[in-house]
Amino acid sequence: MTNYEPKGDWRIRINGNETHPVPHVHVVFRDGSRVSVAITTREVLAGEIRPVKRLLLALANIAENEAAYLAEYRRLNP
What we know:
Layout: E1 2-3, E2 10-14, E3 24-29, E4 34-38, E5 44-47, H1 56-64, H2 66-76
Antiparallel strand pairs: 1-2, 2-3, 3-4, 4-5
């Protein structure tokens, strides 16, 4: 598992040994809320955040770091 430094009230986590076929990251919020987001499409695969605007900065971060997150996902999930 790779945890990235917190950004505001959320952080990105990438797990190894995932069974889901879509490369994704977990966005974990300080209050315990979490969502799984597809790295390349930024689609929310699981979970829910309210209000949705709380997720916007995380989605921008995933877009900005897409190549690095995808490489790390593939390293942890060969």
